[in-house]
Design goal:
494 residues, alpha/beta, Rossmann fold, UDP-N-acetylmuramoyl-L-alanine:D-glutamate ligase, 2 domains, 12-stranded mixed sheet, 17 helices, 16% strand, binds ligand LZDS7PUF, binds potassium ion
């Protein structure tokens, strides 16, 4: 799938139905189901002790399902070790099956305090909280009682408690990554397989650290829905290796086309991003009144206006990459340039208002291409609402890839990168400093650069997006989330 990235850096992610199938197959093979719940509790308890060596008191918040059952196993194991345990029981009806059995075992310890008053968590002396309210059986919207319990856990964490979530942060829809109200977890111990929603939207923000315990579940060898790219990968595999015996031609050429009146900065930033990402040569094609600004800022970037030279004449070879869109606008000038783009061949990155024109003209790309929509642009391309896109980021990105025959980076707190073969990579660590105009322009230039020297759109898209995110996180640590400007991440690429 990715030739430059070893598989060990790719975490396979699954949908709930795959996890349920493996769970059922395991129950069938073992002839019972409680053993797996017990292994889940043991694994959790091991991780709790690993992070809290001198644990004296444990607060365990449990719902009525099997997620709560796992929590009750932990409560019993801790009580066995002489740790003081308080169980906050938030079930709304009697437990059944494995959870009922786990309750019987746990409530058999008279050292375990049991309360239904979640408000008391605030005064609990424990500084370690187990969140076993809701797991993969959660279906939104959340009930008022459980919403109160989630709020109580978050409040406790805000006061300094360490929170471990059983399988997933309660309130998270592990399919979509959405959670209107969800637990913020220092650690998530997830079972059988990593789930998609841990790495998307609210899930990506709420899960500070995730460990997966397979619980010896039967492996049905289903193809993962997606992979998460471990952020550390680029520390070990730098994106643009400079070869000692190389020249500018070794690293390819990018032309950036964009920057209508009022939007010159977008195109200038994209061309600067391509240059700083190590591409051999960069041309900027923009409105003539922006040329001097570009020359002043980046004399290494050749710049011309489409009134002076044809777009095709800026391309240096059949492998020159065209980045179209940053600041392109929606005027006559913009449309003329979109048409000029359609008359060219060769690899392309289509961003910002070029995605608007792509939607208007509607034809497949017909060339190696990477599209870089945010959810709003994705919604326009698929003629649906942004809410529809957020309900299924992976499926939406795949639909765009199929419709326009291209690689797609669906941008967000974490980004979803897909190709036409059904490969899906989710990447990044949320970086709020990037929630500013200009972040996308910088990304498009970086994708253009990676495409210029890798030649393979999926690889280029994955590596550029991961690189952009990694540099932004580094930059924001130094400069600050509020004041960091997106182009500043370009000083943290190496
Ligand atoms: N051996 C095993 O069974 C193992 C289970 N594992 C753990 O189990 C959970 C999945 O357990 P499940 O019981 O299927 O579901 P949950 O516990 O996540 O949730 C079901 C309970 O939650 C209630 N619920 C659901 N949605 C809401 C909502 N919006 N508001 C309030 N309450 C909600 C639901 O109530 P119902 O009224 O809908 O029945 C249930 O009470 C999994 O995540 C693991 O932690 C392990 O995998 C080990 C083996
Ligand atoms: K949970």
């Amino acid at each position: 799938m990715l030739t430059r990235i070893p598989e060990r850096y790719l975490v396979p992610l699954y949908r709930v139905e795959d996890v349920r199938r493996r769970e059922q197959a395991s129950f069938a093979q073992e002839g019972e189901s409680y053993a797996m719940m017990h292994r889940a509790g043991e694994a959790l308890y091991r991780h709790i002790l690993h992070h809290n060596a001198s644990l004296k008191h444990l607060s365990v918040v449990v719902g009525g399902g099997n997620n709560g059952g796992d929590g009750l196993v932990v409560a019993a194991l801790a009580a066995q070790d002489g740790i003081e345990v308080t169980v906050y029981d938030c079930s709304s009806k009697p437990r059944t099956g494995d959870a009922e059995y786990a309750e019987k075992v746990a409530f058999g310890y008279d050292t375990i305090q049991i309360t239904r008053n979640i408000e008391a968590l605030n005064q609990d002396p424990g500084q370690v909280v187990v969140d076993g309210l809701l797991g993969i059986g959660f279906h939104p919207p959340i009930s008022e009682d459980l919403a109160n319990a989630i709020a109580a856990i978050n409040q406790k964490r805000a006061q300094g408690a360490w929170v471990v979530s059983v399988d997933c942060p309660s309130g998270l829809d592990v399919e979509t990554g959405r959670g209107a109200l969800l637990v913020e977890a220092d650690l998530v111990v997830t079972f059988i397989a990593d789930k998609l929603g841990h790495y998307l939207l609210d899930g990506a923000v709420a899960c500070h650290q995730i460990v997966m315990e397979s619980l010896q579940a039967v492996d049905l060898l289903n193809r993962p829905t997606a992979y998460f790219l471990t952020p550390a990968v680029l520390e070990n595999y730098p994106p643009c290796l400079r070869l000692p015996n190389s020249h500018k031609g070794t690293y390819g050429h990018v032309t950036v086309l964009g920057g209508d009146l009022g939007f010159g900065g977008a195109a200038i930033m994209a061309s600067e991003a391509a240059a700083k990402s190590g591409v051999g040569t960069v041309t900027l094609m923009t409105q003539s009144r922006h040329l001097s600004a570009s020359l002043m800022r980046n004399p290494n970037v050749m710049c011309v206006s489409p009134e002076d030279i044809g777009l095709g004449d800026t391309l240096r070879s059949s492998e020159s990459v065209l980045v179209i869109g940053p600041g392109l606008g929606r005027t006559e000038w913009s449309e003329r340039n979109w048409q000029a783009f359609l008359a060219t061949e060769g690899p392309a990155v289509v961003d910002a208002d070029a995605l608007y024109w792509l939607g208007v003209y509607g034809q497949p790309m017909g060339r190696p291409a990477v599209l870089t929509p945010h959810p709003g642009e994705a919604a326009r391309l698929l003629q649906c609402s942004t809410a529809d896109i957020l309900e299924d980021l992976v499926g939406s990105a795949q639909q765009i890839a199929t419709r326009f025959q291209s690689v797609v980076i669906l941008k967000g707190a974490t980004s979803v990168v897909v190709n036409q073969n059904g490969d899906v990579v989710i990447l990044g660590q949320p970086c709020p400093a990037l929630a500013k105009g200009g972040s996308g322009d910088v990304l498009s230039g970086m994708v253009g650069a990676c495409l210029a020297y890798y030649h393979e759109p999926f690889e280029a898209a994955v590596i550029a997006a991961a690189w952009h995110n990694m540099a932004a996180n580094k930059a924001s640590l130094v400069i600050g989330q509020i004041s960091m400007q997106p182009y500043q991440l370009l000083d943290y690429l190496e």
